Amino acid sequence: MKLFFDDAAFDGQLQRSVGKCDAGMANVGEVLYIASRITPGDRESWYAAWSGFADRLVQQAATALAAGHAASAASAYVRATEYYRQAFFWHRDDLASPQLVNAYAASVKAFRSALPHLPRPGVMLAGDTPGYFFAPAGAGPFPTILHIGGYDSTAEELYASVYPALDRGWAFAALDGPGTGEVLYQRRQPMRPDWEHVVPGMVDLLLTQPQVDPKRIVLVGRSFGGLLAPRGASGEPRLAAMVVDPGQYDISAAIARMLGPLWASVDDPAADPEFDALRQNPVMKALLGPRMVSNGTPTPRAYFADMRRYQCIGQAPKIACPSFITDNETDAISTGQGQQLFDALTCRKTFRRFRRDEGAEGHCEGMAPIVFWTAAFDWLEETL
Fold first, then answer.
1. CA distance 260 to 264
2. From 335's CA, which of 56, 88, 134, 259 has a CA 20 to 30 Å away?
3. Mean pLDDT of residues grouped by 10 in the chain (384 residues)?
């Protein structure tokens, strides 16, 4: 589906913001205006348009707060959070780039400025996997979503998924882990595949909150989290359930198909020039740069070799909690691996394939997150 740009990568990221409109983290009119100020394919104009609009929203929020309009201020701050995140998106290939450093810091600051003024104020969670916790009104304990993000997510961005939980009486935690958000951008800790050793610490952190029901913690992983969450669930018996969208089983299998004969040379340093040549393609350059940084790998060949570690082949049969596995008929990223993961599970399980005719086209149901969350929560309420 095309929204605005002919450039598929730019348009896909634009749709990512439109998908947050239901949660109040974006506004269609604002997003389309920002898009009109961007030169297609030009990451500098992308940065200027998003960050400039976010700067104005932060000024509006400060003015509204000074005038006693706390709800208006919170709304402006959370939209600025998303627009700053968009600003640095194409600059993640250099952790020291001013665009990434400044816009990431501005996104975090805007979100934390909103926290005390939100309809349900959130609290910060500090530790090895920092993030935020939100709970419905009342003492609880509440069933709780523990949400981890994808390759380029931040804990702040995941606020877009808070309202479906709170509306149903669930608490919600969004955490950064190795290779994402604060843990990558400020602590410089790269991505790692063994989240079976990461998620238990996340659960420990969550259990410091008295509103959390320890018997009803559900791990949710979306996008690349569709691989990390199953790895995490394989090492955490305290989970009541797991939800992944889309399921991921073996990343290297998809890479091998993409690289073709070149895959056979992934362990050969002499093949570095051939792998480096991939970056002469602008699409591959934009794809590889941030991922090499996230993985802490210095070359394209090293990145592809490292991705062989990102699979759930041995871990999937160890998952004991009921699991809701999804895929999407038009998702070019998952390449049908949701079904593979589902087939490998031996626990109680349900599979759901989202469809274009539901308005839920593309990766992670693109601009229709409510379709995903409705299905997920209906399953969770029946399962738990």
1. 8
2. 88
3. 90 95 96 96 96 98 98 98 98 97 98 96 96 95 96 96 97 98 97 98 97 98 97 98 96 91 96 96 93 97 97 97 96 85 98 94 91 97 96
